[in-house]
């Protein structure tokens, strides 16, 4: 009983600090309120769950679109659609029934046989429901994709306008409008420009992005005097990887949209927000960030309101409870057969367990955001199990890191020898995973996030294990130099990729800096093997025969 009571005070304090940590990161942030309870227009793509526009056999049922429009009616009277196939054309008559308007998009690709039916259908809809069609958008970012010339787009715009008599335009990123031929500028009734500060070459945080908006609008008005401008797409992602100091989050999304609405209201410029609902299929193209531009999530729940405080973790209380539960379960498993501990050990392991529980809870949160396919789910489940095993190992009374070096894991995998070098296999899995992620970020990092909790927890805990085992920064007694060769390979990857990320991401990206710090900790984990190699080399030179 005395031993159990020794654990109680540190566990209670650690739990209180865990609760305080989650309360802090989940606190509501005060933001400027939106000037109007209704949005001018929002981009609407009806795909849900596993539905994707790449499934050309898919036809969206009209009742699904009707339910979405009923959901959107309280927040906007206008939706922008991008195509007239796959059942999306039903948006127009369904919007007309609800006294809503549609920015009717025609998807223009490289092949006439794909876009000519869309043009024909759009003309039919515009003639049948003229009161519901606010304007027709002939092509979306076609110049950006390089699929048609500006002159050809001008011809299509002119043709659709003549057939419908409705306002007609073309939509693209503002920089491509600056390079567009005059024929296209003259053909449109107004210029629909896309402005996505998160994706700009020089990204800015949400509050500074509004200044960039002012710059773009003033630049475009100066270059095209007398031409009416509409912001056809703007928004901010609520999840995904940071780009410099442009950080996706619920708070930043709400902040940008509220500030944007105030800015355009003062200027009297029409606009469209991207987008109505999160689109999971976009994560296949753009990583996690692509799927989280909606003002509603995939379950059609509002992410935030437009006037009150906004939290990045509105469910922080549940996450705090999960973190405490994870920490206690790992501690219980690690100490099931030996709860004996001095005061110092009880305090150390209590705080380590619950801090590790918070890290795993954060990892679980990220896994839920980035998982798209069954394969993704299997990988993330394996990584969560890896973190739980490392945490449990670090909480054991007698860690035995030195008995299972990396080379032992490789030998076991090659020869399937017994006993299984469990710790070595676990370390090897962590290093292989971290090296794979580091290389992926270095060579193809635009859409990849930084798995901070996934590898930060093992990086710290393996150092703790080494310190407790008395092998940190000390040469190993194992004469097998294979472990040193593995250490050199992993160290070269971690150091090289870390230096590249520092250069490529810049000092403003705190997520990138944190991941570089994790790579440094993982490199430090390998320092003992390097020192052992040096020691063996020196001993070999001293005892080598001279002739």
Explain this structure to me?
This protein is an alpha/beta fold. The protein folds into three domains: 1-26 and 313-398, no CATH class; 30-291, TIM Barrel (Alpha-Beta Barrel); 401-542. 56% of the residues lie in helices and 7% in strands. It contains 20 helices and eight strands. It has an eight-stranded parallel beta sheet. β3 (101-106), α4 and β4 (133-140) form a beta-alpha-beta unit. The chain starts with a helix and ends with a helix. The model is unreliable at 541-547 (pLDDT under 50).
Shape: elongated
- Main beta sheet, described? 8 strands, parallel
- Overall number of strands: 8
Q: Estimate the mean pLDDT confidence.
A: 89
User: How do the strands line up in the largest sheet?
Assistant: 1-2-3-4-5-6-7-8
- Report the top-level CATH class of the largest domain: Alpha Beta
SSE topology:
Layout lengths: L1 H24 L16 E2 L18 H11 L5 E4 L9 H7 L3 E6 L5 H17 L4 E8 L1 H4 L4 H15 L3 E6 H5 L3 H6 L3 E4 L11 H18 L5 E6 L15 H18 L2 E4 L9 H4 L29 H19 L8 H28 L3 H21 L11 H10 L6 H23 L7 H18 L12 H24 L4 H16 L1 H17 L4
Parallel strand pairs: 1-2, 2-3, 3-4, 4-5, 5-6, 6-7, 7-8
Descriptors:
disordered C terminus; 8-stranded parallel β-sheet; alpha/beta; 547 residues; 56% helix; TIM Barrel; 20 helices; elongated
In short:
The chain is α/β, with parallel strands linked by helices and 547 residues long. It has helices at residues 2-25, 62-72, 91-97, 112-128, 142-145, 150-164, 174-178, 182-187, 206-223, 250-267, 283-286, 316-334, 343-370, 374-394, 406-415, 422-444, 452-469, 482-505, 510-525, 527-543, and strands at residues 42-43, 78-81, 101-106, 133-140, 168-173, 191-194, 229-234, 270-273. Strands 1-2-3-4-5-6-7-8 form an eight-stranded parallel β-sheet.
């Amino acid at each position: 009983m005395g031993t159990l009571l020794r654990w109680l005070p540190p566990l209670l304090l650690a739990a209180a600090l865990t609760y305080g940590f989650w309360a802090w990161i989940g606190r509501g942030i005060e933001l400027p309120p939106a000037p109007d309870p209704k949005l001018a227009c929002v981009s609407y793509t009806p795909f849900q769950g596993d539905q994707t526009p790449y499934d050309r056999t898919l036809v969206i049922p009209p009742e699904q679109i009707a339910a979405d429009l009923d959901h959107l009616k309280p927040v906007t009277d206008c939706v922008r659609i991008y195509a007239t196939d796959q059942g999306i054309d039903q948006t127009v008559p369904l919007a007309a029934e609800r006294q809503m308007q549609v920015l009717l998009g025609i998807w223009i690709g490289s092949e006439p046989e794909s876009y000519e039916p869309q043009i024909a259908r759009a003309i039919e809809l515009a003639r049948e429901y003229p009161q519901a069609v606010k304007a027709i958008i002939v092509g979306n970012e076609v110049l950006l994709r390089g699929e048609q010339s500006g002159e050809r787009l001008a011809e299509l715009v002119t043709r659709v306008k003549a057939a419908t008599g409705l306002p007609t335009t073309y939509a693209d990123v503002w920089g491509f409008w600056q390079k567009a031929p005059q024929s296209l500028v003259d053909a449109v009734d107004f210029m629909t420009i896309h402005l996505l500060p998160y994706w700009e070459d020089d990204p800015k945080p949400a509050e500074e992005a509004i200044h960039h908006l002012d710059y773009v609008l003033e630049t475009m008005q100066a270059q095209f005097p007398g031409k009416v401008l509409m912001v056809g797409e703007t928004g901010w992602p609520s999840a995904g990887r940071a780009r410099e100091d442009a950080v996706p989050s619920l708070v930043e999304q709400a902040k940008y949209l509220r500030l944007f609405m105030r800015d355009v209201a003062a200027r009297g410029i029409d606009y469209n927000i991207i987008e109505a609902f999160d689109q999971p299929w976009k994560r296949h193209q753009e990583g996690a960030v692509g799927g989280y531009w909606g003002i509603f999530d995939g379950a059609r729940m509002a992410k935030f309101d437009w006037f009150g405080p906004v939290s990045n973790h509105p469910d922080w209380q549940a996450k705090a409870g999960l973190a405490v539960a994870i920490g206690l379960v790992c501690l219980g498993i690690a100490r099931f057969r030996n709860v004996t501990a001095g005061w110092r050990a009880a305090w150390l392991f209590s705080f380590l367990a619950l801090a590790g529980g918070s890290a795993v809870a954060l990892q679980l949160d990220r896994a839920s955001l980035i998982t798209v396919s069954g394969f993704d789910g299997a990988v993330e489940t394996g990584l969560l199990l890896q973190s739980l095993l490392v945490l449990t190992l670090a909480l054991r009374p007698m860690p035995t890191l030195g008995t299972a070096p990396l080379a032992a894991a490789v030998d076991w995998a090659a020869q399937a020898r017994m006993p299984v070098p469990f710790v070595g296999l676990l370390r090897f899995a962590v290093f292989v995973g971290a090296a794979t992620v580091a290389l992926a970020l270095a060579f193809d990092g635009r859409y990849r996030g930084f798995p901070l909790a996934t590898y930060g927890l093992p990086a710290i805990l393996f150092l703790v294990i080494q310190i407790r085992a008395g092998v940190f920064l000390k040469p190993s007694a194992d004469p097998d130099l294979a472990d040193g060769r593995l250490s050199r390979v992993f160290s070269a990857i971690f150091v090289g990729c870390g230096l590249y990320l520092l250069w490529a991401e810049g000092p403003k990206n705190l997520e990138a800096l944190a991941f570089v710090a994790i790579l440094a900790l993982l490199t430090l984990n390998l320092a003992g093997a390097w020192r052992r190699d040096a020691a063996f080399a020196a001993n070999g030179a001293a005892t080598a025969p001279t002739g």
